[in-house]
Write a structure and sequence with these properties.
By secondary structure, the chain is α/β, with parallel strands linked by helices. Helices cover about 50% and strands about 10% of the residues. A 5-stranded parallel sheet has the order 2-3-6-1-7, covered by helices on one side. A two-stranded antiparallel sheet has the order 4-5. A hairpin with a 6-residue loop joins β4 and β5. α10 (about 215-225) runs parallel beside α12. Mean pLDDT is about 90; it is low at about 1-10 and about 10-15. Bound molecules: adenosine-5'-diphosphate (ADP). The site of adenosine-5'-diphosphate has 20 residues, from α3, α5 and α11. Adenosine-5'-diphosphate binds near residues 42, 78, 81, 232 and 235.
């Protein structure tokens, strides 16, 4: 896919209009438009990407189905993006759902029977699957089989359906909540890490190039360092800073406008917002550095425990 590059070129006033559909779609469409589509476009997490390249290549070249993979890590690090990249690199369809969305066995059955041979099924928040759904997923993952009961009471008949050889791609923010039997059925699981500064800067520059935002190296670095090693936060802050640059400057982002916009958005040099700072200062000052229980912190902040 051809991408526009404006890292060092003139401010792209006319081209900014070209990306209007992205602008109209809100935050979700903005993030989706910035999603890398191939391994080459996926920045950082090199060791994981190197492993995945091998598995995907073996599957493609030998016609093997890809094993089931699980990705764990905090929100915004690129787990959903990885599922899209893997499907793209495998040349198969990706079906996307989430743990809480599959609320009964029948829904899982219809999801699995709608898959094509070698398709990938992505289940986000997989730790939130209902137990009965999870139990029925085991034979599907292991033997590509699904047991259904047709009819009620004494006349009910057990039918075993043969499923296509699909690949399950799971994502979780809470690896510790995954049951051992489910974890065992993944051929590979990996904990994604927060991104390093250089990778974050590259992500900001890439996102700016795609959306026609002119940004210099120091401006990209400033947004990157306040994004807590998380690409989704970087993309969000880039969009906010872009607004300040467009209104108060000629649209170009440099370190000055990036720093002043982020200060005014109350995102400090460590990427902490006002609530984060209040939380830390309560622990530090009121509770002398802790330890302190979550209820006491919540009460001091006048916030919900969650
Ligand atoms: P998660 O599923 O872990 O919550 P996503 O895959 O939705 O995170 O990623 C959030 C956004 O961050 C994506 O829309 C994408 O634009 C960006 N992103 C994530 N990982 C990368 C990466 N490695 N390189 C470039 N951009 C990334």
């Amino acid at each position: 896919m051809a991408r526009k590059k404006h890292i060092d070129g003139p401010a792209p006033v006319a081209e900014a209009r070209e990306v209007a559909p992205v602008e109209r779609g809100g935050e979700k469409a903005w993030q989706a438009a910035l999603r890398p589509r191939t391994f080459d476009e996926y920045i950082g997490q090199r060791d994981l990407i190197d492993n995945l390249r091998i598995s995907v290549r073996a599957a493609r070249e030998h016609g093997w189905p890809l094993d089931h993979f699980l990705f764990a890590g905090p929100p915004g690090l690129g787990k959903t993006t990885l599922a899209h990249v893997i499907a793209e690199e495998l040349g198969v369809n990706l079906h996307v759902t989430s743990g809480p969305a599959i609320d009964h066995k029948g829904m899982l059955a219809s999801l699995l029977t709608s898959l094509g041979e070698r398709d990938a099924l992505f289940i986000d928040e997989i730790h939130r699957l209902a137990p009965v759904v999870e139990e029925n997923l085991y034979p599907a993952m292991e033997d590509f089989k699904f047991d259904l009961f047709i009819g009620d009471g004494p006349h009910a008949k057990a039918v075993t359906m043969q499923l296509p050889r699909f690949t399950l791609l799971g994502a979780t923010t809470r690896m510790g909540l995954l049951s051992a039997p489910l974890l065992d059925r993944f051929g590979f699981h990996w904990q994604l890490r927060y991104y390093e500064q250089a990778d974050m800067t590259a992500i900001v520059k890439r996102s700016a190039a795609i959306t026609g935002i002119h940004i210099d190296e120091a401006g990209a670095h400033e947004i990157a360092r306040r994004s807590r090693g998380t690409p989704r936060i970087a993309n969000r802050l880039l969009r906010r800073v872009r607004d300040f640059a467009a209104v108060e400057r000629d649209g170009r982002i440099d370190v000055d406008i990036a720093a002043s916009a982020l200060d005014r958005l109350a995102v400090d040099h460590a990427g902490l917002d006002a609530l984060d700072r209040a939380y830390l200062s309560v622990i530090c000052e009121r509770f002398d550095g802790g330890p302190v229980g979550v209820e006491a912190v919540a009460a001091s902040l006048s916030e919900e425990r969650g």
